[in-house]
């Protein structure tokens, strides 16, 4: 590990100072965030992050407020130790899903409940979840909708329709996170035996609460690590719904991985919305040009509907 404020690299060696620093890190985390375990061995659940009647009192909110005041080496190490523990737990969770593969769904956090964009993302999640595990950035908007659909993939279509109807009553977590959470809990009651779904959010964007529809949540402090890990675990490919800066970054971060990958390691990339990705934010022409002549060329797709996107991941085709 790299010691704070030095240029020394210490490998497989723990001095008394290391032990003291780790103890300080544990104390910093434990004292600042009640219930935060920097050596945890499993992923978070929605009930664990939302462990209080009021969001302001929840573990998720307490952890976020703790990050706003972190500054010293002990606090920095606490974040690193926590994220390493989450990373290990995520690897074990993914391995436990067997050979079904994870399909990522990336898209705008601003898609409100009750909108066409939100409903489309939910239906996409449901279609993908029939044969794969749906993974998202774990936040609100299209991410929440895709996790909802993935969670309800094995339920009748009417169940998802009813969930969307109930959620539409509270379109956003603003102005009240508590109302937003209450509507989600109401929808959760419709499916007591959910299909697995993964969320990978970050406290870097702590002002945006994690959605409750992912059955497993790998929440990181360090956003750069979280972004890289999210793309990495989506071994079956990624669908990119209309979004803004974050979604565009994810497109080309994933494209870079595919550009240098061997043929058998390239994962499909599917952009949904021809006009959006060719006119509003013309990422498609550059992606297409980048892929030309590479192993990834036949794995990049531009479609107009979530049904077309899901069809590209159907194991029967």
UniProtKB/TrEMBL annotation:
Gene3D superfamilies: 3.40.50.450. SUPFAM superfamilies: MCP/YpsA-like. GO terms for cellular component: cytosol. This is Rossmann fold nucleotide-binding protein. It comes from Nocardioides albidus. The lineage of its organism: Bacteria, Bacillati, Actinomycetota, Actinomycetes, Propionibacteriales.
């Amino acid at each position: 590990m790299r010691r704070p404020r030095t240029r020394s690299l210490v490998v497989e060696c723990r001095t008394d100072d290391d032990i003291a620093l780790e103890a300080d890190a544990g104390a910093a985390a434990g004292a600042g965030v009640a219930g935060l375990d920097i050596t945890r061995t499993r992923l978070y659940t929605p009930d664990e992050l939302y462990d209080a009647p009021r969001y302001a009192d929840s573990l998720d909110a307490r952890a976020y407020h703790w990050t706003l005041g972190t500054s010293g080496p002990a606090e920095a190490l606490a974040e690193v130790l926590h994220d390493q523990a989450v990373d290990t737990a995520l690897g074990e969770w993914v391995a436990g899903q067997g050979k079904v593969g994870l399909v990522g769904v990336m898209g705008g956090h601003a898609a409100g409940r009750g909108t066409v964009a939100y409903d489309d993302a939910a239906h996409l999640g449901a279609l993908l979840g029939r044969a794969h595990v749906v993974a998202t950035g774990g936040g609100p908007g299209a991410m929440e909708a895709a996790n909802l659909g993935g969670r309800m993939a094995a339920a009748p279509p009417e169940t998802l329709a009813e969930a969307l109807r109930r959620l539409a009553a509270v379109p956003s977590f603003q102005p009240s996170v508590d109302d937003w959470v209450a509507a989600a809990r109401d929808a959760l009651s419709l499916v007591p035996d959910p299909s697995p779904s993964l969320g990978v959010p970050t406290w870097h964007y702590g002002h945006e609460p994690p959605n409750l529809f992912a059955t497993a949540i790998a929440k990181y402090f360090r956003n750069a690590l979280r972004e890289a890990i999210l793309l990495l675990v989506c071994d079956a490919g990624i669908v990119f719904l209309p979004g803004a800066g974050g979604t565009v970054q994810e497109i080309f971060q994933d494209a870079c991985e595919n550009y240098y990958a061997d043929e058998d390691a390239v994962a499909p990339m599917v952009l949904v919305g021809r006009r959006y990705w060719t006119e509003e934010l013309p990422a498609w022409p550059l992606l297409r040009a980048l892929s030309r002549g590479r192993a990834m060329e036949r794995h990049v797709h531009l479609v107009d509907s979530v049904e077309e996107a899901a069809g590209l991941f159907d194991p029967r085709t």
